[in-house]
Amino acid sequence: MNCYTNGKIFIANISVVHKPEGRNQEKFFGTSNEYMLAYSKNKSISDFYNVILDESIKDKFDLFDRTGSYKRKNFIRLTDGKYALRESKPDFFYPIYVSNDLKVVSIEKFENSIAILPITDQGVERTWKTKPDTFMQYWKAGNIEIVKEGNKYVVYEKLRESQVIKTHWTKKEYHSYHYGTKPLEEILGEKLFDFPKSIETVKDTLKLCTKYDEKILDYFAGSGTTGHAVIKLNREDSGNRKYILVEMGTYFNTVTKPRIQKVIYSDNWKNGKPQDKAGISQMFKYQVLESYEDTLNNLQVPAESNAALLQFDEHAQEEYLLRYMLDVETRDHLFNIQMFRNPFNYQLKVAENNELVPTKVDLVETFNYLIGLYVERIQRVGDIKFVEGKTREGLKTLVIWRNLETTTHEEVLRIYRKLYDSVYSREFDQIYINGDHHFQNFRTGEDKFKVKLIEETFFKKMFNVEEL
């Protein structure tokens, strides 16, 4: 889609001055800016939040109420010359009635009220900025303030903080070295990443587009500037924004993850050491997805099929493996079923530096994602783990994991009955359990049982191409 020509989702191309001195290595023009493209899924309903990015403008909004910061502007129309006079717009000349304590305001006269008219100190009869009904809407919305100044009452409009957001960003805080590279070096203690974005550039972008509890997704996390900016912004306004970062670079473990861990602990670092302990309460989770190569390396292929593979060259072997064996011959042998005997210690062979390294895999967490479980509670008793939650379809679900080598059927049933009495256990729409069990089962519908095997469901969900 060419967003520049159809304009359906393209908003603007913003020039960000990230190196005002320009690159001195270039032959002709020294590049001093980069570009940020802004899009919206639906421009008709999208908008920016009212924020101020320029601190010099922000300082003018020095008053505060429950809605936020604002500045006052006289509600009398003091500009527009003769068109702001009473004789030109008589409908805009009317009394505003207030109580002595300024808490009651009306355009209708009431007992002991005080009338305020749009007359200047020079005695000129001018007009209010709106008609009576609109004025009352302003008042009810909390955008009118009436102040007694000496012997007179002044009606002010509350101008909320706002700024025209231009397509040329020039704040000094957008400098990619001083607010990007240098802070990252201080956090990590050394230079491990080239050309990180200025955290202030990302933070200002988030101010425009997010409020206190929204989610931010960055498919190209890089050094983790977006996550850092979210944490920093939450610190400043006590927000609860959440971030999802996606990165496939090898620097994830040396740059991206350590950066997020460190800025949660403190926002002030020098030479890789924290300068304070002013952390923020937060938990973040990171997941490593199984790669294409890791999938092939961990398939359980029957011995007779392995012999057949040796008859082909390398390319033909891969084609045969993917197009025939995975669909027909290995349908019941794609992974080792024995891994469910001790699900808390399952390891996958992962390629690292051209060798296969056994890496621990969280089967419990993986299964939660496979069935779409929103986890509400986890309990562990010895080598038995109980996971409770609801699926996307709203089914109340219990998942029971146990180490089959160290637990017995009787032990599992005893602990289950202790944790979930007969009344509470009936609330579950479905129960999953690994291995053979002694749980009583019954139908909940056609071909559906309440107690289900984790192994069978795991296999179907992992290799279900119909939902892709």
Strand order of the largest sheet: 17-18-19-20-23
Radius of gyration: 33 Å
Strand content: 15-25%
Largest sheet: 5 strands, mixed
- Structural class of the helix and strand makeup? alpha+beta
Oligomer: single chain
DSSP summary: helix tally: 14
Q: Termini separation (Å)?
A: 23 Å
* Percentage of residues in helical conformation: 25-40%
Commentary on this structure:
The structure is a single chain. This protein is an alpha+beta fold. The protein has 14 helices and 23 strands. The protein has helices at about 5, 55-60, 130-140, 175-190, 200-210, 225-235, 255-265, 290-295, 305-310, 315-330, 365-370, 410-420, 420-425, 455-460, and strands at about 10-15, 35-40, 65, 70-75, 95-100, 105, 115, 145-150, 150-160, 170, 215-220, 240-245, 270, 275, 345-350, 355-360, 375-380, 385-390, 395-400, 430-435, 445, 450, 450-455. The strands form eight sheets. It has a five-stranded mixed β-sheet with strand order 17-18-19-20-23. Strands 3-4-9-8 form a four-stranded antiparallel β-sheet. Strand 21 (about 445) and strand 22 form a beta hairpin. Helix 5 (about 200-210) packs across helix 6 and helix 6 (about 225-235) packs parallel to helix 7 (about 255-265). The longest helix has 16 residues, at about 315-330. The two termini are about 25 Å apart.
